Amino acid sequence: xxxxxxxxxxxxxxxxxxxxxxxxxxxxxxxxxxxxxxxxxxxxxxxxxxxxxxxxxxxxxxxxxxxxxxxxxxxxxxxxxxxxxxxxxxxxxxxxxxxxxxxxxxxxxxxxxxxxxxxxxxxxxxxxxxxxxxxxxxxxxxxxxxxxxxxxxxxxxxxxxxxxxxxxxxxxxxxxxxxxxxxxxxxxxxxxxxxxxxxxxxxxxxxxxxxxxxxxxxxxxxxxxxxxxxxxxxxxxxxxxxxxxxxxxxxxxxxxxxxxxxxxxxxxxxxxxxxxxxxxxxxxx
Length: 285
Ligand SMILES: C[S@@+](CC[C@H](N)C(=O)[O-])C[C@H]1O[C@@H](n2cnc3c(N)ncnc32)[C@H](O)[C@@H]1O
Known about the structure:
The protein is an alpha/beta fold and 285 residues long. Helix content is 28%, strand content 29%.
């Protein structure tokens, strides 16, 4: 399959189509957006921001990049490829959106695998994240993907232009996702299962009350669940650096007590359970 650039971007200020040159995108009303030298585009207007630097910080992005590049979560990326391969049509044009793509590990891995698939269809990948630091890192990973600083609440792509949205360990926006998905479009949610990182959680939390793992199995208005599968593996031991990176890149960093984090920082290594739930949903007509 071949990879194509996104042609469905819209202006975050007036929703008119964006078109442009190597350096800039412009809408018919004259709103213009520079293409950064790293290749990404900032389509997050200040009025869509709830803080000065929304989303993950640079430290979180660096920690996630180091952790993911160490390969611990590669089985998740591989399963992602299997699930997505079953959802796309290799003889058609496929528009995919990674909503809350972070520093781009999974989308990069997926595109790399899918371009070598047989078929004369195309793959148009757009990754969005509200964190500029995350998008800068993502732009380094893959030049064939359109990377945007943007919010899941208002993805700056045309209505009903996306075939499949990935939302991995991310922030779901029902309205934002429903607007941009095609009528039969799919949503793939990847979230932690009950056992996910249980060994780390038992070190950093004193009791179950502190450790309130979110349930992946909630119903989502306007979507019908088509399939669920779980990926669990336990053959992982991580070292001190990986423990620190894992803590820094997850919400546990904010939730865990000072004592909990101190206990984790004293560990030399940790056996880990990875438990992840893949849910495929379809937009209701
Ligand atoms: C836990 S990280 C997951 C990143 C990536 N999906 C992964 O699995 O490696 C959540 C990401 O969502 C981003 N985020 C938070 N709120 C967002 C929003 N409203 N719109 C888009 N991205 C958002 C954060 O900046 C962060 O990169």
